[in-house]
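To the structural biology subgroup,

Please find below the input and predicted structure for PDZ domain-containing protein, which we are adding to the shared reference set this quarter. The sequence is reproduced verbatim from the submission form. If anyone notices a discrepancy with their own records, reply to this email rather than editing the shared folder directly, so we keep one authoritative version.
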Amino acid sequence: MIVASSCSSLQLRQNVVKPCRASLRPLVVRAAVRKDKPAVEPVTGPNELAKRVIGAALGTTTALSLILSPAIAASELVRLPASTDPAVFAAQRTLVEAWTIVGHSFVDPAFNGHDWEVELREHMMKAYNSGDGSAALGEIAAMLEELGDPYTRRIPPEEYAAFRVSSDGELQGVGMLIANEPVNGHLLVLAPIKGGPADRAGILPGDEVTSINGVSTEGWNGEKAARLLRGKGGTEVHVRLARRSAGIPGVPARPDPPPAEPVEYRDVSLRRERVQLSPLFFTTLPAPQLPPGTGGLMPISTDGRVRSSSGPVGYIRLTSFSSNAAAEMRDAIQELEAAGASAYILDLRNNPGGLVRSSIDIARLWLDGSPVVFNVSGREGDELQQQVVDTPGAALTHRPLAVLVNGGSASASEILSGALHDNARAVVLGDEHTYGKGRIQSVFELQDGSALFVTVARYQTPAGTEIDRIGIKPDRACSMGGAPTNTFVAGLPMVPGSSELLVESLMEDSCVMAARDVLQQQVAVVANAATVASQIPGPARGAAAAAAAAARVQAASGMRRAPALTDL
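Predicted structure (tokenized):
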């Protein structure tokens, strides 16, 4: 998914809260739907609207009245009954809060053809008549469904906490990745996060989690266990582990099913702390050994083979666009450059997106200057505005780049792949179009701890390609044979040459191999042009150098035709 900003307030020009007569106990709301351009944008800060709504509710057990905008001060009061049930009344307050935020921020000012004030009346009455807090909260979802936008939604507090973990790139926990073993359903440790509490305690991949705080994990799924393992920093959680073999074979993220009888049980107390999750991992792949002349693009050699001295191919897989993704991408590129990478594969398959800011910052690492990353249109359908890299500079590397995508590449993944493609920096490979999510959401933290995601804008690629419901079409097709994308877990730091098993698995992935072959040809284009340029004496050398530079641009853009060397 794409998140433009994490907003916790909707600050309005005027908010007046006052109680109504106690005998009526109504919930009185001045309509907040603005037909004109919003005067105030959502910003990060204390949730003033929520504080005033809740404050009024706590200050009187009867009713509250809201005047939410001077622009509609003359409009008719909407008088609705407020439930005497505390849970229902709390849901009604949250519904009003969500309704107001959508009224000010939703990208479609026509609200999908619905009268937004009428929607408030209808769903507030249904919430009142429900007599049940859970059912009353359900009216918020029902109201938002009228907008016809699946991305505008409310998520409960526990889901919002999980979202904060994924977007912040850190959590308060024990640093242990767990999942159910596919054969018997037991909870296994996929891997301890390096340097975390579990790692320091000697917990290994394949250890079985049999109980947490004295409660058996039989029948639990990984998410239920993870909720208990997470908690306030500095507190302890007690875990019992069964180590069923001295050495666990197989890829760390997918240990083989253990023997029936355990070797030993261990009781471990782990102190929760802030754990940094890595949104990417990287390694190097050996350069292919191909005969010269393939496509006319192989570099000149004396032994009839392409020399591996061109360097390995750097492989980077990005699993999410969290707040620390750009910094880790920078570190990965720098380490791969030091390892002698001659080209790069950026794997965005099954990456659902994340923070828009992160996609812009990552594009900056691969692109020179201040290029356009995407075009955006907002609430009123204004002309497209160009979003550019706001800290221009030189790219970290100019080596050829291939981007891998699939139908699970969405949102910020589509922003980044579209930016790299349309700026002639990368060739895109995949087995199908990307997901097609061309909408940007802001996140509003509500007073009850839940969060409201609201679509506030739509975007296109720099070249004007529509993304929403269409997706990005790869330049070249590749099959998803090998399917290594499910064998690795985000949070495991990988460094060049650190995992032979990782490389072996990638070498069985046909899309990775197709990208590697394309990149090798692009490296050869540059090598051939540079070789010819160096051999041309005198005045023609300048033209040859220009042709070599053009070859580098051609290689970066994924063009297949070799430079016309006869024109040099």
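Summary notes: Residues 2-148 form one domain. Residues 348 and 405 are 5 Å apart (CA to CA).

Regards,
Lab coordination
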